[in-house]
Amino acid sequence: MLHARRQPGSPRWRRVVLKISGEALASSASDETVDSSVVERMAGEIAHARSELQVELAVVIGGGNIWRGTTGAGTGMDRATSDYMGMLATVINALALQDAIERQGQPTRVLSAIEMAEVAEPYIRRRAMRHLEKGRVVIFAAGMGNPYFTTDTPAALRAAEIEADAILKGTHSGVDGVYSADPKVDATAVRFDRISFMEVVSRDLKIMDLTAVTFCKDNGLPILVFDLMSEGNIGRALGGEPIGTLIT
Ligand code: UDP
After folding, report:
1. In sequence order, what DSSP letters do the residues of 3-45 get, joined into one string?
2. Is pLDDT at 66 greater than 80 in this prediction?
3. Model confidence at 8, in pLDDT bands (50, 70, 90)?
4. 223-227/166-171 β-pairing
5. Atom 14 (ligand 1): residue with closest C-alpha?
6. Which atom of ligand 1 is least distant from the CA of 87?
7. DSSP calls for 127-158
8. What angle (nearest 5°) sits at the alpha carbon of residue 82, between those of residues 157 and 182?
9. Whose CA is nearest to atom 5 of ligand 1?
10. Which of 57, 198, 232, 233 counts the highest number of beta carbons within 10 A?
Protein backbone atom coordinates (compact mmCIF):
# COMPACT_ATOMS: atom_id res chain seq x y z
CA MET A 1 0.00 0.00 0.00
CA LEU A 2 1.30 3.43 -0.84
CA HIS A 3 0.29 5.36 2.23
CA ALA A 4 0.62 3.27 5.37
CA ARG A 5 -1.58 4.13 8.35
CA ARG A 6 0.14 6.05 11.09
CA GLN A 7 -0.83 7.89 14.23
CA PRO A 8 -2.13 11.39 13.59
CA GLY A 9 0.66 13.90 14.07
CA SER A 10 3.45 11.41 13.43
CA PRO A 11 5.72 11.90 10.45
CA ARG A 12 5.88 9.67 7.42
CA TRP A 13 9.67 9.93 7.37
CA ARG A 14 12.17 10.69 10.12
CA ARG A 15 14.43 12.94 8.02
CA VAL A 16 13.76 14.44 4.61
CA VAL A 17 15.21 16.81 2.06
CA LEU A 18 12.72 19.23 0.56
CA LYS A 19 13.70 20.58 -2.86
CA ILE A 20 12.24 24.01 -3.56
CA SER A 21 12.85 25.51 -6.97
CA GLY A 22 13.91 29.14 -6.96
CA GLU A 23 11.19 29.88 -9.47
CA ALA A 24 8.60 28.88 -6.90
CA LEU A 25 9.62 31.96 -4.90
CA ALA A 26 9.08 34.40 -7.74
CA SER A 27 5.88 36.36 -7.87
CA SER A 28 3.29 35.46 -10.46
CA ALA A 29 1.48 38.72 -9.74
CA SER A 30 4.44 41.09 -10.15
CA ASP A 31 8.02 41.03 -11.38
CA GLU A 32 9.44 40.48 -7.89
CA THR A 33 12.18 37.84 -7.98
CA VAL A 34 11.44 36.89 -4.38
CA ASP A 35 7.79 37.23 -3.40
CA SER A 36 7.66 37.71 0.36
CA SER A 37 4.10 36.36 0.62
CA VAL A 38 5.15 33.09 -1.06
CA VAL A 39 8.29 32.80 1.08
CA GLU A 40 6.29 33.46 4.23
CA ARG A 41 3.67 30.88 3.34
CA MET A 42 6.33 28.23 2.72
CA ALA A 43 8.25 29.21 5.84
CA GLY A 44 5.06 28.86 7.90
CA GLU A 45 4.42 25.39 6.51
CA ILE A 46 8.02 24.32 7.10
CA ALA A 47 8.03 25.61 10.69
CA HIS A 48 4.65 24.03 11.35
CA ALA A 49 5.68 20.64 9.95
CA ARG A 50 8.88 20.76 11.98
CA SER A 51 7.09 21.47 15.25
CA GLU A 52 3.95 19.37 14.74
CA LEU A 53 5.46 16.30 13.11
CA GLN A 54 8.93 16.49 14.65
CA VAL A 55 10.34 15.60 11.25
CA GLU A 56 13.98 16.53 10.64
CA LEU A 57 13.88 18.87 7.70
CA ALA A 58 16.60 20.00 5.30
CA VAL A 59 15.82 22.23 2.33
CA VAL A 60 17.72 22.51 -0.94
CA ILE A 61 16.82 25.76 -2.62
CA GLY A 62 17.29 26.56 -6.31
CA GLY A 63 18.08 29.88 -7.93
CA GLY A 64 16.18 29.86 -11.23
CA ASN A 65 14.14 32.96 -10.26
CA ILE A 66 17.39 34.94 -10.36
CA TRP A 67 19.82 33.18 -12.67
CA ARG A 68 20.39 29.85 -14.37
CA GLY A 69 23.70 28.68 -15.79
CA THR A 70 22.10 28.04 -19.15
CA THR A 71 20.87 31.66 -19.33
CA GLY A 72 24.37 33.05 -19.57
CA ALA A 73 25.79 30.14 -21.52
CA GLY A 74 23.09 30.75 -24.14
CA THR A 75 24.44 34.26 -24.75
CA GLY A 76 28.04 33.09 -25.13
CA MET A 77 29.16 33.37 -21.51
CA ASP A 78 31.59 30.88 -20.07
CA ARG A 79 29.36 28.07 -18.77
CA ALA A 80 31.18 27.53 -15.49
CA THR A 81 31.11 31.27 -14.66
CA SER A 82 27.41 31.37 -15.44
CA ASP A 83 26.82 28.33 -13.22
CA TYR A 84 28.67 29.99 -10.34
CA MET A 85 26.30 32.94 -10.73
CA GLY A 86 23.42 30.47 -10.45
CA MET A 87 24.88 29.02 -7.28
CA LEU A 88 25.21 32.50 -5.77
CA ALA A 89 21.55 33.09 -6.66
CA THR A 90 20.58 30.12 -4.49
CA VAL A 91 22.30 31.80 -1.53
CA ILE A 92 20.06 34.87 -1.91
CA ASN A 93 17.00 32.62 -1.84
CA ALA A 94 18.38 30.65 1.12
CA LEU A 95 18.79 33.82 3.18
CA ALA A 96 15.25 34.95 2.34
CA LEU A 97 13.88 31.58 3.42
CA GLN A 98 15.98 31.45 6.58
CA ASP A 99 14.79 34.89 7.59
CA ALA A 100 11.15 33.92 7.06
CA ILE A 101 11.43 30.57 8.88
CA GLU A 102 13.18 32.16 11.85
CA ARG A 103 10.47 34.80 12.08
CA GLN A 104 8.16 31.85 12.74
CA GLY A 105 10.33 31.01 15.76
CA GLN A 106 12.01 28.02 14.12
CA PRO A 107 15.85 27.99 14.38
CA THR A 108 17.38 27.59 10.92
CA ARG A 109 20.92 27.30 9.58
CA VAL A 110 22.13 28.01 6.06
CA LEU A 111 25.02 25.79 4.98
CA SER A 112 26.70 26.89 1.81
CA ALA A 113 28.75 24.75 -0.56
CA ILE A 114 30.68 27.90 -1.53
CA GLU A 115 32.35 29.42 1.48
CA MET A 116 31.06 32.83 2.52
CA ALA A 117 31.63 32.93 6.23
CA GLU A 118 29.87 36.27 6.77
CA VAL A 119 26.48 35.02 5.65
CA ALA A 120 26.40 31.24 6.02
CA GLU A 121 28.15 28.29 7.61
CA PRO A 122 30.25 26.15 5.31
CA TYR A 123 28.72 22.84 4.33
CA ILE A 124 30.07 20.19 6.69
CA ARG A 125 28.12 16.93 6.63
CA ARG A 126 28.43 16.13 10.31
CA ARG A 127 27.47 19.65 11.26
CA ALA A 128 24.38 19.44 9.07
CA MET A 129 23.34 16.23 10.79
CA ARG A 130 23.96 17.72 14.23
CA HIS A 131 21.77 20.72 13.39
CA LEU A 132 18.99 18.38 12.29
CA GLU A 133 19.26 16.29 15.45
CA LYS A 134 18.91 19.50 17.45
CA GLY A 135 15.67 20.33 15.68
CA ARG A 136 17.01 23.09 13.44
CA VAL A 137 15.89 23.41 9.87
CA VAL A 138 18.92 23.22 7.58
CA ILE A 139 19.00 25.05 4.24
CA PHE A 140 21.62 23.88 1.78
CA ALA A 141 22.75 26.75 -0.41
CA ALA A 142 25.06 27.03 -3.45
CA GLY A 143 24.11 23.59 -4.73
CA MET A 144 27.11 21.28 -4.61
CA GLY A 145 29.57 24.06 -5.29
CA ASN A 146 30.34 22.58 -8.73
CA PRO A 147 29.24 23.93 -12.10
CA TYR A 148 27.39 21.85 -14.72
CA PHE A 149 24.65 20.75 -12.32
CA THR A 150 21.25 22.01 -11.30
CA THR A 151 20.05 21.91 -7.71
CA ASP A 152 18.16 18.64 -8.26
CA THR A 153 21.42 16.72 -8.08
CA PRO A 154 22.68 18.32 -4.85
CA ALA A 155 19.22 17.63 -3.38
CA ALA A 156 19.80 13.94 -4.08
CA LEU A 157 23.45 14.01 -3.01
CA ARG A 158 22.81 15.84 0.26
CA ALA A 159 19.88 13.54 1.03
CA ALA A 160 22.15 10.51 0.71
CA GLU A 161 24.93 12.16 2.69
CA ILE A 162 22.74 13.11 5.66
CA GLU A 163 20.95 9.73 5.54
CA ALA A 164 17.56 11.20 4.73
CA ASP A 165 14.67 8.80 4.17
CA ALA A 166 13.26 10.62 1.13
CA ILE A 167 13.36 13.65 -1.12
CA LEU A 168 10.30 15.82 -1.49
CA LYS A 169 10.40 17.47 -4.90
CA GLY A 170 7.95 20.35 -4.90
CA THR A 171 6.61 21.47 -8.27
CA HIS A 172 5.49 24.97 -9.10
CA SER A 173 4.16 24.52 -12.62
CA GLY A 174 0.66 23.41 -11.61
CA VAL A 175 1.50 19.76 -12.32
CA ASP A 176 0.87 17.89 -9.07
CA GLY A 177 2.87 14.71 -9.64
CA VAL A 178 4.22 12.40 -12.33
CA TYR A 179 1.93 11.92 -15.33
CA SER A 180 1.97 9.46 -18.20
CA ALA A 181 2.37 12.46 -20.56
CA ASP A 182 2.43 16.23 -20.17
CA PRO A 183 -1.05 16.97 -18.72
CA LYS A 184 -0.92 20.50 -20.12
CA VAL A 185 -0.65 19.14 -23.64
CA ASP A 186 -2.32 15.72 -23.50
CA ALA A 187 -5.82 15.57 -21.96
CA THR A 188 -5.59 11.77 -21.63
CA ALA A 189 -2.53 11.98 -19.36
CA VAL A 190 -3.00 10.19 -16.03
CA ARG A 191 -1.20 10.78 -12.76
CA PHE A 192 0.65 7.91 -11.13
CA ASP A 193 0.26 7.41 -7.36
CA ARG A 194 3.46 5.44 -7.49
CA ILE A 195 6.01 4.71 -10.19
CA SER A 196 9.42 3.03 -10.38
CA PHE A 197 12.68 4.81 -11.17
CA MET A 198 13.08 2.52 -14.18
CA GLU A 199 9.75 3.66 -15.62
CA VAL A 200 10.56 7.33 -15.10
CA VAL A 201 13.77 6.83 -17.04
CA SER A 202 12.42 4.53 -19.77
CA ARG A 203 9.36 6.73 -20.40
CA ASP A 204 11.60 9.81 -20.34
CA LEU A 205 9.30 11.54 -17.84
CA LYS A 206 10.92 14.91 -17.24
CA ILE A 207 10.13 15.53 -13.61
CA MET A 208 13.63 15.96 -12.27
CA ASP A 209 17.12 15.98 -13.76
CA LEU A 210 18.05 12.54 -14.98
CA THR A 211 21.35 12.68 -13.06
CA ALA A 212 19.39 13.15 -9.84
CA VAL A 213 16.85 10.42 -10.67
CA THR A 214 19.63 7.95 -11.47
CA PHE A 215 21.46 8.86 -8.27
CA CYS A 216 18.29 8.28 -6.21
CA LYS A 217 17.71 4.96 -7.95
CA ASP A 218 21.26 3.77 -7.26
CA ASN A 219 21.02 4.82 -3.64
CA GLY A 220 17.46 3.68 -2.88
CA LEU A 221 16.17 7.18 -2.11
CA PRO A 222 12.43 7.58 -2.73
CA ILE A 223 11.24 10.84 -4.29
CA LEU A 224 7.79 12.28 -3.62
CA VAL A 225 6.77 14.68 -6.39
CA PHE A 226 3.99 17.01 -5.25
CA ASP A 227 2.48 20.43 -5.89
CA LEU A 228 4.36 22.86 -3.67
CA MET A 229 2.12 25.80 -4.49
CA SER A 230 -1.12 24.45 -2.98
CA GLU A 231 -1.44 25.80 0.52
CA GLY A 232 -0.79 23.17 3.20
CA ASN A 233 0.84 20.68 0.87
CA ILE A 234 4.24 20.60 2.59
CA GLY A 235 2.54 19.40 5.79
CA ARG A 236 0.36 16.97 3.84
CA ALA A 237 3.37 15.48 2.07
CA LEU A 238 5.33 15.13 5.29
CA GLY A 239 2.35 13.82 7.20
CA GLY A 240 1.75 11.04 4.67
CA GLU A 241 -1.48 12.22 3.10
CA PRO A 242 -2.04 10.71 -0.34
CA ILE A 243 -0.79 13.50 -2.56
CA GLY A 244 1.57 13.53 -5.53
CA THR A 245 3.56 10.63 -6.91
CA LEU A 246 6.01 8.46 -5.04
CA ILE A 247 8.98 7.28 -7.11
CA THR A 248 10.66 4.18 -5.66
N1 UDP B 1 24.10 25.29 -10.12
C2 UDP B 1 25.33 24.69 -10.33
N3 UDP B 1 25.71 23.65 -9.54
C4 UDP B 1 24.92 23.15 -8.54
C5 UDP B 1 23.65 23.73 -8.36
C6 UDP B 1 23.27 24.81 -9.14
O7 UDP B 1 26.07 25.09 -11.21
O8 UDP B 1 25.31 22.20 -7.84
C9 UDP B 1 23.72 26.48 -10.90
C10 UDP B 1 23.18 26.16 -12.27
O11 UDP B 1 23.63 27.14 -13.17
C12 UDP B 1 21.68 26.32 -12.07
C13 UDP B 1 21.61 27.46 -11.08
O14 UDP B 1 22.71 27.21 -10.22
O15 UDP B 1 21.02 26.66 -13.26
C16 UDP B 1 20.32 27.59 -10.30
O17 UDP B 1 19.87 26.34 -9.87
P18 UDP B 1 18.58 25.62 -10.52
O19 UDP B 1 18.57 25.83 -12.00
O20 UDP B 1 18.58 24.21 -10.03
O21 UDP B 1 17.41 26.42 -9.86
P22 UDP B 1 15.85 26.03 -9.80
O23 UDP B 1 15.45 25.50 -11.15
O24 UDP B 1 15.68 24.99 -8.76
O25 UDP B 1 15.19 27.32 -9.44
Report:
1. S----TT--S-SEEEEEE-GGGGS-SSSS-SS-HHHHHHHHHH
2. yes
3. low
4. parallel
5. 86
6. 14
7. HHHHHHHTT-EEEEESTTS-SS--THHHHHHH
8. 60
9. 143
10. 57
What distance in Å separates the CA atoms of residue 30 and residue 202, rounded to the nearest whole number?
39
How many beta carbons lie within 10 A of that of residue 145, not counting itself?
A: 16
140/61 Cα distance (integer angstroms): 7
Distance, in Å, from the CA atom of 182 to the CA atom of 189, rounded to the nearest integer, reads 7
Choose which residue among 65, 79, 139, 150 to substitute to test ligand 1 binding: the one with the highest number of ligand atoms within 8 A of its C-beta: 150
Nearest to 3 by CA among 211, 183, 235, 242: 242
| Ligand 1 atom 13: residue of nearest CA | 86
Question: What is the percent of the chain with per-residue pLDDT over 70, rounded to a whole number?
Answer: 96
- Number of continuous H segments (helices) and E segments (strands) in the chain: 8, 9
- DSSP-derived 3-state class of residue 51: helix
pLDDT of residue 4: 46
- pLDDT (0 to 100) of residue 34: 96
Predicted pLDDT at 29: 83
Residues with CB under 6 Å of ligand 1 are: 21-23, 62-64, 68-69, 83, 86-87, 89-90, 143-144, 146-147, 149-151, 154
pLDDT one-digit tens code per residue, 93-151? 999 999 999 999 999 999 999 999 999 999 999 999 999 999 999 999 999 999 999 99
**pLDDT digits 0-9 by tens, 9-27:** 667 899 999 999 999 999 8
